Amino acid sequence: MAAPFNPPTNFDSKPEVPKWVPPPPPTEDLEYAKLHSIDLSLLDSPDPEVVKQLVETAKIAIGDDGFLYLVNYGINLEQLHRQFSIARYLHRNISEEDKEKLHWDPQGGLYAGYKPPFGWRTIKGKYDGISQFNFYEEEYKSLDKVPECIHPFMDEISAFTEYLTRSVNKRLLTLLSKVLEMPDDFLYENIESKGPTPINEGYLRHALFHPFKNEEKGMGEGLRMFGHTDFGTTTMLFSVPVTCLQLWGRDGIWRYVKYAPGALVINIGDTLELISGGHFRATRHRVHNPPPSQETFERLSVVLFNGSKGDLRMQPCWDSPLIKREGCFESQGAYKEFKVLQDKGIPIPTNKEWREISIINTRHPTDEPEKLLKEVTVDGVKYIEVINQGVRVLQPL
Is 392 within a domain? Predict the structure, then answer.
């Protein structure tokens, strides 16, 4: 039985942090994606039939959508809201000096540090209303790498991240290893990055989406972030009421992800799609403006991007009985394109190369026209075409 999260509670010795109160959910009748819910505590059930059913549910969820809700994973709502309170405290108290000192450089292949609300490049671009602070390995090693206002809370952030990576994600990867019919520790021990810090080769993001003013609402035709896949193993996004996240269904329709208090919204990254030979789907998702009933609300977001071992070159797990029995699905995005390289005898990128070039080539609605990437139409659907390390990537608009 997995131990529940037991965070530091030495609040009296720290600056007061106003409690984050979730805003109300939307009042509109929106079209929502029908996601499966996984109760992670059932993985510890002594009844093999319960575990078997859990594995079957997970197999359907990650094959159909690549997205799922994770519940009963060990962190309660009060503990979670404390992390959201710290994230908001960071954005409200970071100094101008730290914004400059810790300014990010995505053109270097990492999102580490502070992103101002002006585009998705190192230099200042058009206003996009998205502020972020991204915690990579170096941010956990040195307080000089994080805003001074957040120094007193790094023990809580570190404990939170460590529980997510070394408990929640480890159990989730156990479940996904079972789907592949491999040993329980296969994905965690062989694919997931591990190291001396809680985050390893992934990163934690505190993001704040500021509401647009009237003159800004048409920016990007309502999009805050274009459709994309994540490049690691799993992404853990804590569900929030301000409804902006959309996923792209197999029918080519974008649908909202509904708020589920306390739930983790899990999506599969490119790495697991490649390892599974397309059985796991790296789902295309995007961030849209919220519906009218929420357009004046801030959207606070806490996300953990779990990273895979940087020196690995991804290919299907040919030892998997599932893959041996059912083969691979070449219709999937990342797997299909990587296979093209393999068939030509061209070395596929390592995980580190893949994630760095993916960051460098990220396209954003605020980009100037000369920086916009190529748009193509396939079977009547418009995509962004990007060539990363010789791999053709199509992302729906």
Answer: no
Q: Which domain holds residue 144?
A: 11-330
CB neighbour list of residue 199: distance below 8 Å, 6 or more residues apart: 135, 136, 137, 139, 140, 161, 165, 307
| Residue 397 in tokens | 């608009």
Q: Please give the distance of CA 185 from its chain centroid, rounded to a whole number.
A: 22
Q: pLDDT (tens digit, 9 = 90+) per residue, 30-76?
A: 999 999 999 999 999 999 999 999 999 999 998 877 889 999 999 99
Q: Label residue 336 by pLDDT band (50, 70, 90).
A: confident
Q: Choose between 110 and 373: higher pLDDT.
A: 110
Q: Are strands 67-71 and 37-39 parallel, antiparallel or unpaired?
A: parallel
41-67 as b/e: b if 16+ CB within 10 A: bbbeeeeeeebeebbebbbebbbbbbb
Sheet holding 234-238, edge to edge: 37-39, 67-71, 264-268, 234-238, 299-305, 203-209, 130-135, 113-115
Q: Is residue 15 part of a domain?
A: yes
Count of domains for the chain: 1
Q: Position of tokens 């003013």?
A: 213
Candidates 90, 136, 97; CA nearest to 113 is 136
> How many residues are there in the chain?
397
CATH for 222: 2.60.120.330
Q: Residue 71's Cα: distance from chain center in Å? A: 17
The DSSP secondary-structure symbol of 390 reads T
